[in-house]
Design brief:
Largest sheet: 7 strands, mixed
CATH class of the largest domain: Alpha Beta
Number of strands: 15
Strand order of the largest sheet: 3-4-2-5-6-1-7
Shape: elongated
Radius of gyration: 26 Å
Number of domains: 2
CATH topology of the largest domain: Nucleotidyltransferase, domain 5
Helix content: 25-40%
CATH architecture of the largest domain: 2-Layer Sandwich
Distance between the termini: 84 Å
């Protein structure tokens, strides 16, 4: 670390950095400075042993680039090269690598390694492969990890219940860092105890009894209930057609017609041009109560569809899932806001989906919280990551959820029952009825 940078540490964090164990782990909740602890230990290894070589490892490249590297540069003031390495004046070097580069690491003699968000790894394979490269002379030959709890996984087995003295575990919950966290942030986390107890237990209280299943944003039980629900439509009424426009040859353009949270129609199309999609959308909307409002994912080819519908005089809610949310203290971007809003509506019983829409029922429970930042801001995994896991894109889920979210922005089409008697001050007398 640069000499002019001073950071306050909580005890488990400091003990992890100073640990003389061969394989220390810092498994802790939000706001407990896991990334700072890993970076501090990496710098310590590099400065203590001249000519050292170490690697900071992360599962996904995008996380490595957008989170790990940025945190390192922020905390240390050092800049990584285009090859994702940092060199010290004493000849030591730190490399930043991800899962797909593991084969290249097999040819290195490392003095140390560190794994960030180790719970993202499903097995201990990568840990053991890195462990096997600790062969450098004049180095600690240490491997260390930081992680969130994730049930009784490989980290739990090696560090929590294992009895090997080389594996030393340091733990912390969010309230151990209370002195360094904003009060309103802690207050928002406390609310999760009632609203999202599994998330609270895992990410605030550092419970090992909660697993990745709690990362699923929309629970399958909520989806099943929505498919069986007969939702009563109450005034005022809003209607919208939501469109997720195909970006690639194997994706579908999906249309949903939604009235006050209830799906009243759906269609999907393959390989249609922008103008064909616009035409089909208008026919679809006309067929379903002549809907005049559209929610369109404007990223990529969807932008042309949204622009043309607006030119035709339609009300268009432009949906840009990558844009920053107005609720920056809660959501990483609009995508996270959309998914959380949909989860809330489904859990509360305010949404109904069609019983025969199997694709939607499957896809709604695919997305996970990719990472919940130490600030308490929710982030959802990328659409491409979901596609890698399931082999197809969650087009139906994205279209439906965007429609639910955009519905409250659609114009009201029915404000009151036209058959209801007008109120002119007359009241019925119970005695004469």
């Amino acid at each position: 670390m640069s000499e002019d940078r001073v950071y306050k540490l909580i005890k488990p964090q400091a003990d992890f950095i100073r640990s003389k164990a061969k394989y220390p782990a810092y498994v802790a909740s939000w706001g407990t400075g896991k990334s700072l602890a890993l970076i501090a230990r990496a710098v310590k290894e590099s400065e203590t042993y001249p000519g050292n070589l170490g690697v900071i490892f992360r599962k996904e490249f995008t996380d490595l680039r957008d989170s790990t590297l940025r945190d390192f540069e922020l905390y240390t003031g050092m800049k990584a090269t285009s090859e994702r390495s940092v060199k010290f004046s004493n000849g030591s070097e730190i490399l930043f690598r991800h899962l797909e580069e593991m084969n290249n690491i097999q040819n290195m003699n490392l003095g140390w390694f560190g794994i960030e968000q180790a719970e993202e790894l499903e097995t201990d394979d990568q840990f053991l492969k890195l462990w096997g490269r600790l062969r450098r002379e004049d180095a600690s030959r240490s491997g260390f990890v930081i992680a969130n709890t994730n049930g009784h996984n490989w980290i739990y087995k090696l560090w929590k219940i294992g009895n090997d003295p080389d594996y030393e575990l340091f733990e912390a919950n969010s309230f151990q860092a209370e002195a360094y966290l904003p009060k309103d942030t802690l207050d928002s986390w406390r609310k999760l105890k009632e609203s999202k107890p599994k998330i609270y237990n895992r990410f605030v209280m550092n419970s090992w009894d909660e697993s990745d299943a709690t990362d699923v944003i929309i629970q399958p039980a909520w989806v099943a209930a929505a498919a069986k629900r007969d939702l009563n439509i109450t005034l005022p009424i809003r209607r919208i057609v939501s469109i997720d426009v195909a970006r690639r040859g194997d994706d579908h353009s999906v249309f949903y017609a939604i009235e006050n949270g209830k799906v009243i129609g759906r269609e999907d199309w393959e390989k249609k041009s922008t103008m064909e999609t616009v035409g089909l959308a208008q026919i679809f909307a006309k067929k379903h109560k002549d809907i005049q409002a559209f929610a369109v994912d404007e990223i990529g080819v969807g932008g042309g569809v949204a622009d043309r519908l607006q030119e035709l005089g339609k009300q268009v809610v432009f949906v840009n899932s990558s844009r920053k949310s107005h609720f920056k203290d809660r959501f990483y971007n609009v995508r996270a806001e959309i998914y959380q809003y949909g989860a809330d509506e489904l859990e509360a019983g305010r949404a109904q989906i069609q019983a025969d829409d199997v694709d939607l029922q499957e896809q709604l429970s695919w997305a996970k919280y990719k990472e919940i930042k130490s600030s308490g801001v929710f982030q959802v995994e990328a659409k491409d990551d979901i596609k890698k896991r399931y082999g197809r894109s969650p087009d139906n889920a994205d279209a439906f959820l965007a429609g639910l979210w955009a519905l409250k922005r659609a114009d009201v089409v029915v404000k009151k029952d036209r058959w209801a008697p007008k109120d002119k001050g007359y009241r019925l007398n119970p005695a004469t009825v």
